Please model this.
Amino acid sequence: DSGVTQTPKHLITATGQRVTLRCSPRSGDLSVYWYQQSLDQGLQFLIQYYNGEERAKGNILERFSAQQFPDLHSELNLSSLELGDSALYFCASSVEYGSYNEQFFGPGTRLTVL
Amino acid sequence: GIQVEQSPPDLILQEGANSTLRCNFSDSVNNLQWFHQNPWGQLINLFYIPSGTKQNGRLSATTVATERYSLLYISSSQTTDSGVYFCAVFQPHKAAGNKLTFGGGTRVLVKP
Model:
């Protein structure tokens, strides 16, 4: 158990819908990252938050958005869903102490868009 | 951006065999992590190894940062070692944040 929790574990929805994925980081970790794992694109970075502020964006679609709340949990919002959004979505967290930046991953949310 | 290549892409082992997985990266990196993705999809941290050698039970890893590669050794493999092994690197560029860039993975199947 990495200490990072994600809900829900599975999500099945229809095209055009909107969903919210939730992540709670390890105790003491200020950074939260979201990654997408799909068959054709592999594991790709989407976005990073540090202590409530957006720090970096990767290949995140405009239909996707995220935020980190004062209690440090984060949510990833996916809207106008398409079949191609079906993937495993991971949240990771890290403490970022000096140059130490080991990331720990949650169990993932498997999204299926029908 | 940085390229991360893993080899071999697939590996079939008989239980008890030893193996070496390789990760090459195209630019200097600050940190490197190895993960095991089990058949249930969970990513499990194996090593945080920006340089040098580390051992954890039957697994060990070596990173030679100056030559831009890392190796993961699996000894006396067991069926529970099956899954996909990923190498991921982190570069110190502020604009890119602290993201990990993943390799394509090595899919390992250990047969009893």
Observations:
- Chain B has no helices and eleven strands.
- The CA atoms of residues 10 and 20 of chain B lie 12 Å apart.
- The interface with chain A takes residues 30-31, 33, 35, 41-45, 48, 86, 88, 90, 95-102, 104-105 of chain B (CB under 8 Å).
